[in-house]
Amino acid sequence: MFDPNSFWVFNYDMSIAVLDQGPELFWFVSNALLQDEIPLKHIQSIDVGEKYILQELPQIVIINGDDKSLLPEIFIGRMRNHVFARNTLFIVMTSDISSDFKKSLLIAGAGQVLYRGRGFSPSPKFFASLIKWFLTYKSPEPLIFDYKPVPFLAPAEFTSYGRIGWISENQCLVETNINLNPGQSIEIRNTLFEELEIKNLKLECIEKNKVGRYYQYSNSLLCKIESKDRVKDAKKLSAWIENNHEISKHKPIKLVYFESDANYRNEIKQMIKTDKRYCARGYSHLEDFQEVLEYQMPHLLLINRDLIQKNKSKFDALKSYMQNHFCFCITYSSSDIYDLDEFKKNYPNIMHSPKIIELDLLESMISKLEKKLPQNQQTDEKKIFFNKHSPYSRLTFHSPCRLTELALCGVGIELPFNIANFCPCEISSHNFTLAQMGRGQFFRSFSGKANTDKSKGIYQRLIFMGQNIKDNELVKITIEKINAQGFDSWAANEPISDKKNR
């Protein structure tokens, strides 16, 4: 059996920063992780915290959400939109667990929201398990959490979030943590469609992951737009696109940097301008190089030769990738440590700059690349490419699902499709109301698996997000009652006084 308090060996980039003016939160974190060799850093101001995050790129940042000098949803959103800091995960500790606050944090990119009120903090054991989950969320150890479920059967509603990359009169490209297969459909809601009064809106997946991601979601889906009156609605969209093409913000070139020097990373950040026709992502190492290539699908790679020299076996994945994709690569260096001729000999299919890449050279390369783009990736006047800050780019996905079980740390559900590990979502169900909790509860997906019985859908285990003391107690009481009475009896024999009070 997995012991969540056992000794873990972490690789070099696993570190945690605690951002709080006082020492109490840092003491709690350090005590909870006392048995684990994870580097911890206490930071007491926002400015220092931001500099530290961008310099060191810690894997997890824990924030005091009640700090009046810090607006956590704004701070997290800014960090998660940084070229290099996008992969940092955030945990917010707060006494404000209102539904609107939780949702704003979740949309901004908070990994978890934990209640910490007067005289109350999360269980150190649960917190240590949470940290271990965050460090391995793509393929977590199944027994990290003490998961002892009881039956909790009921129909429910699933809601998750995503972005629209571009839209035409008949199709759109969306990014999401939902794993639709071609032919599968899902209901969505979006401000643009509401303004145009397009009803009964659904997206049907046409193809999956054929282009790289511009937002931080697991999948990019090309979808066909379905609605109540498709012919009339297509004309509405076509007219809107024609009249609003000035808002289109197409960035056809995707750059991916690999740079370990924090000072040059800062220079790179200054070169990435919002008004240019390229966007960029950055990484500090080549550890997941092949995975990054397949996820980002970049048009141009810029890599410090120092990283290649340290990890040649990882870098070798580029050769086969470039054979099958429109992609160019340039290596550079800020020193003469490595023999440039040797790199030219060993990697003749890529370019090697004798110095770092500066803005003039970068923009010249971008201009040349854009002219060589495949036809299907060039600017299309019949599409609108939304800016990431546009409310039109945001959408919610909605689907019926089924609650199957309840545990102290989360629930089990069945969905008609798979969702990525760590997917944020909201589940609404009458069962939560029966348990005297709010009808809608927030979660992150822990793991999923297909049922042998195809009629039951795909099982997903979810971890609660943003529960307070009252929520925790209500879950405990509900589990105790179901264990004592059985689920059917509990669901059928709710006290009348409780019903009236609600």
Protein model, in words:
This protein has 502 residues and is of the alpha/beta class. The protein is 32% helix and 28% strand. It contains 18 helices and 23 strands. Strands 6, 7, 9, 10, 11, 17, 18, 19, 21, 22 and 23 form an eleven-stranded antiparallel beta sheet that branches. A five-stranded parallel beta sheet has the order 2-1-3-4-5, sandwiched between helices. A five-stranded parallel beta sheet has the order 13-12-14-15-16. Helix 1 crosses helix 5 and helix 3 (72-80) packs parallel to helix 4 (99-108). The two termini are 42 Å apart.
Quick overview of this protein structure:
The chain is α/β, with parallel strands linked by helices.
Keywords:
alpha/beta; disordered C terminus; five-stranded parallel β-sheet; 502 residues
What oligomeric state is this?
Answer: single chain
Mean of residue pLDDT values: 89
Largest sheet: 11 strands, antiparallel
Figure out the total of helices. 18
Task: Give the helix proportion (percent range).
Answer: 25-40%
Q: In total, how many beta strands?
A: 23
Report the sheet-strand fraction: 25-35%
Low-confidence stretches: 1-12, 496-502
Q: Report the end-to-end length measured between terminal Cα atoms.
A: 42 Å
Round the Cα radius of gyration to an integer and report it.
24 Å
Approximate shape: globular
Category from helices, strands and their pairing: alpha/beta
